[in-house]
Design goal:
365 residues; alpha/beta; Aspartate Aminotransferase, domain 1; Aspartate Aminotransferase, domain 2; 2 domains; seven-stranded mixed beta sheet; three-stranded antiparallel beta sheet; 14 strands; 13% strand; binds pyridoxal-5'-phosphate
């Protein structure tokens, strides 16, 4: 039947990706609902025009200007002062950054660990890099028990540990003490990656794992412009770590992997970081109100510090997902059986979702 010599582990696999139906209310992939304002669009056009005029040349392979801008942004966002451009790496989305990490530190005969339920791309990047996938588990409330984490790591001896904080699709943050304990345990044996894709949505006062970089040369913190930064279309993810770790990522990337257009667009967006993040506080508050509304309707709700909420438990989640879709609302069928995930949208989108869900519930009764 198979007419092409595909690797057995991908022969029957489906490509990653949420269904993307063209409906009025799209709350399925955790985007920021607000498009860039006109002055940011203008800055992007100006920078891209300049880049286009030099498009006969390859771009800056080491994206020095962008690395400096990302380091400055992280310093301002986290309050951690000693982050320099030599500690920054970037690629086309933080998924590509994670691919570079596994190309450099995973590979055949090596193991990567994360704790499920978690971001499903981790497993796929492991498969793509021939790295064995040996996940541990989260507790019933989706927190990570540090003792279990350490025992699991001792048992399966990974070279890469992935710790999303907040986790997807649950929204659960990871205390700094847990990250620190796992990093203490893995020094010299594993690279520990804290995936902070949703960090800007964390509760005020909760520290970023960037604070631990000084202490652990094998720790890396990944971020993205796709979520809070309202620039999912730009495809720019990045990482902060000790320069030695970044050096290995440079070795495995494809030459000129970040186009001049991507670099110009990301720089323009970073010039307006305050504006791009302008609605984050509002989205955070709306997340808390959405979680409270779902709880008031009688659902179980996972405690979230991201821009989405996981709720359950549904006897037939697929049917609820379909009935929402029929009402013009798409959310995400992901995570443990019986749960669904909804992104925080605009006020109107969030209300439309809650009204549709209430209607469906009434029909089910
Ligand atoms: C969205 C997401 C990412 C990264 O997305 P990019 O668009 O590739 O930067 C990384 N990790 C988690 C947990 C995510 O949810």
């Amino acid at each position: 039947m198979n007419r092409l010599p595909a690797r057995p582990e991908i022969a029957a696999a489906q490509p990653y990706g949420a269904p993307h139906p063209d409906v009025p209310v799209r709350l399925n992939v955790n985007e920021n609902p607000y498009p860039p304002p006109p002055e940011v669009v203008e800055s992007i056009v100006t920078r891209v025009r300049r880049a286009a005029a030099g498009a006969n040349r390859y771009p800056d392979r080491d994206f020095g200007e962008l690395r400096s801008a990302l380091a400055d942004y992280l310093i301002r966002e986290s309050g951690v002062v000693n982050i320099g451009p030599e500690m920054i790496w970037a690629a086309n989305g933080s998924n590509e950054v994670l691919l570079h990490v596994l190309q450099a530190f995973g590979g055949p005969g090596r193991t990567v660990v994360a704790f499920e339920p978690t971001y499903s791309m981790y497993h796929e990047i492991a498969r793509g890099t021939f790295t064995a996938w040996r996940p541990g588990r989260l507790e019933a409330d989706f927190s990570l028990d540090a003792a279990h984490g350490i025992r699991h790591i001792d048992k399966v001896k990974p070279t890469v540990v992935l710790l999303p904080s907040p986790n997807a699709p649950t929204g659960t943050p990871l205390p700094l003490a847990t990250i620190d304990a796992i990093a203490d345990q893995t020094g010299g044996r594993a690279v520990v990656v804290v995936d902070e894709a949703y960090a800007e949505f964390r509760r005020p006062g909760r520290p970023s794992a960037l604070q631990l970089l000084d202490k652990h040369p094998h720790l890396a913190v990944t971020r993205t412009m796709s979520k809070a930064f309202a620039a999912a279309g730009v495809r720019l993810g990045y990482l902060a770590a000790a320069p030695e770790l970044v050096g290995y990522l440079r070795t495995v990337r494809l030459p000129y992997h970040l186009s001049a257009i991507t670099q110009a667009t990301a720089l323009a967006a970073l010039d307006h970081a305050g504006t791009m993040l302008g609605q984050v506080a509002e989205l955070r508050e709306r997340r808390d109100r959405l979680a409270a509304a779902l709880a008031a309707m009688g659902f179980e709700v996972a405690a979230s510090e991201a821009n989405f909420v996981l709720f359950g438990r549904l006897a037939d989640r697929h049917s609820v997902w379909e009935q929402l879709l029929a009402r013009g609302v798409v959310i995400r069928e992901v995570g443990p059986a019986g749960w669904l995930r909804v992104s925080v949208g605009s006020e109107l989108e969030t209300l439309t979702f809650l009204r549709a869900l209430a209607e469906i519930r009434k029909e089910l009764e």
